[in-house]
Specification:
The chain is about 25% helix and about 20% strand. α2 runs parallel beside α4.
Length: about 250
């Protein structure tokens, strides 16, 4: 699927080539992050305006917009979606409007971005992030939710995301956040074990409360009811860091 950069150029700059592997991590980062002199740090839950934040697999971009509004800026954020702009128009009533507001606040928005290949993206590969966030990863309802084939596909998605996120994560203090539903069949995705096999360690986990993110609308994202919410129930945020031995 094609990748399209829709973010405004204000607040960041890009480079034409990626850094070498042995280059210092600070040199590997393109200085797109601009908080502005004298601006105080703003926070919402686990996230801060002082962090470089990559949001992955956004639906209608309402979660990204929630953070941006809390920060009063989105210049520290890159928000991405697998959907193209055309698909956003078809699937979500507020999708394009949310994207436009994010862009106006300085966010880099990438449409048509595959989470399992994102570390190869010409812009993202020049970046390193403090927080990489994927809320409710899911491939879509190809089989019934509890079907073994469906679980296998979702596990493959998570594996691909983690592999790419690890590349883009700052080694010191960087965290990968996955928000995931509790209970069966979701527990069979084995998020923690899969992360450990990839050199990531669970830093902490805690309940996810949607009400703490004003304006966030969780979307089904697939099928004829893509713009409708799905039942959340009990959910958990898993926070992974790069294991010291990796």
């Amino acid at each position: 699927m094609g990748e399209e950069v829709t973010g405004k150029e204000e607040g960041y700059r890009t480079v034409s080539s990626s850094p070498s592997e042995d280059q210092d991590e600070e040199d590997a980062e393109v200085n797109f992050f601009m908080s502005g002199e004298g601006n105080r740090e703003r926070r919402i839950e686990h996230y801060s305006s002082s962090q470089r934040i990559l949001l992955v697999g956004e639906g209608d971009f309402s979660f990204s917009l929630c953070l941006a509004r809390a920060f009063a800026s989105a210049r520290n954020m890159v928000a991405t979606s697998l959907d193209t702009q055309q698909e956003l128009v078809k699937k979500y009533s507020n999708g394009i409007g949310n994207v436009r507001e994010l862009e106006e606040m300085g966010c880099v928005v990438l449409c048509g971005l595959d989470a399992t290949k994102m570390s190869q993206h010409f812009f993202l590969r020049t970046q390193r992030f403090d927080r990489i966030v994927y809320n409710f990863p899911h491939v879509g309802f190809i089989y019934p939710e509890a079907n073994g084939c469906q679980i296998k596909l979702n596990k493959r998605l998570v594996k691909g995301f983690l592999a790419n996120a690890k590349v883009l994560l700052r080694k010191e203090g960087g965290e990968i956040h996955i928000t995931h539903k509790d209970g069966d069949p979701y527990s069979r995705w084995d998020l923690v074990k899969k992360a450990e096999k990839m050199g990531l360690a669970l830093h902490e986990s805690m309940p996810f409360c949607k009400d703490k993110y004003p304006g966030y609308d969780n979307k089904r994202a697939h099928g004829s009811s893509a713009d409708s919410p799905f039942k959340l129930g009990d959910c958990t945020i898993f926070k992974f860091r790069i294991a010291h031995s990796s």
